[in-house]
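User: Predict the structure for this protein chain, please.
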Amino acid sequence: MKKIINKYKSAVCVALTSALLASCTKDFQEINTDPESSTIIQPAYVFTKAQYDGAKNNLNLLLGTMQYTTSFNDVAGFGSKYVSSQSQQSMAQFSNAYYQEINELALVINAVKNDPEQVNLLAAARIWRAYCFSRITDLYGDIPYTEAAQGYTNSNYKPAYDAQRNIYLDMLKELDESASSLNAAKGTFGQADLIYAGNTVKWKKFAYSLMLRLGMRLTKVDATLAETWVKKAIAGGVITDDADIAKIVYMSAGQDINKNPIALSLYNSDYIKADGTSNPEGGKYQNTFITYMKNNKDPRLGILSVVYVNGVADTSMAIQKGMPATLSSKPTDFVTYSEPNQKTVLALGGAKLIYTTAETNFLLAEAVLRGWYTGSTAAALYESGIRAAMKQWAIIAPADGIITDLQINTYIKYHPFNTTGTFDAKMQQIYTEYWLAAFPDAQEAFSSYRRTGYPALVPVNYVGNATGGRIFRRMLYPLSEQNLNRASLDAAIARQGADDFMTRIWWDKL
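Assistant: Here is the predicted structure, written as structure tokens:
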């Protein structure tokens, strides 16, 4: 009897198993398909994500390197102290950019490149890709460029590194071709475009403004080439009005992707309690930054900086004080040092400025000095740059970033352009002001500093640093490249020089 029961049990099990398998096979496609996903690329959605990712991919440790901020904590203070044990932090932008915005832009470009009706979508994606690639190559030098993002399309998981000179020539070409191809009669990304909502006139100005920036990068390595591209950019039409600034406006609530990325990073790491002392990473403004603004009675100081007095944020200029970068433990007077203003620098819903009117004015002032532009004077452009740099805080934080015309005019009155000085003296004036104007985009300040030498920052010679007490010239390639793309990496190192903080990239010549 037992054998008979077992026999029927087996038969039932076989029948049930067969039925289940048949059912699974029948519905396999439906069960294993996400009903909310699509097998077709939606270029607008992917472009939005690429804009978010490109704008947030900042190497914020450079805030310390450009002596805006510092920390008594060796880990958090790597950017200002160059501590050897923390050198891998410099690899972050390379590691993040390729799997985010670079891959995303490749998907968008491949989806629209063969459709003449989507010429504006293609142009905007190419312009934004040039911006994103410029941010990577300016930190590392030679990088994967021509073969980048081919893992998705060509199964190329070991892309070659391009020489930075070739990367620059191609980025400039991309900007030129894209600007020329924009057509107001064709469709755009519309509201999916976080920067300009599809406005082709503004995208063209942004393209030529980036061309101006990149062209000026070449002044030390190839002045003739720099002049050619700078003049082409000016002729094309650059951003000279605040209405055309390239920016993304964020939200103070909701998902983190919708919040200002620099503010969010600083807020979460140090300033969430807003009491001046409960700073987990030990961050404060660095004395170089605060002392310079305080000594020059810069009206931005009260907009950017606070000191907490009895738990209350105080913007009074007299009490602002920057912390030295040489500290290795929390000082007893930690609460008395300045830190970013919650209402402006740390405003999660504040705008992130990607390219500003101030930058155009300072670059054009230099172009005048070099004889490449005659549309104004260096003095007038210098003053316009200062004015725009102060006005832009009302764009970042409309309610709390307002600096009055009287304050601006007073500052300019006491900081006139030295029209009789040497070329170097004039460059120092222009690019010290640019250092103030660029904050908190420390990466652009870092590029400007390497090219011009200004502001004349004094390096921090902290015990155990990785640079011999000198300011970085480039960042290190990720360790993953040694394991996954070694041959291409070795070729880049052989061409460019050692993978070292002090190796100069192509345009950064002595």
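The CA atoms of residues 215 and 229 lie 5 Å apart.
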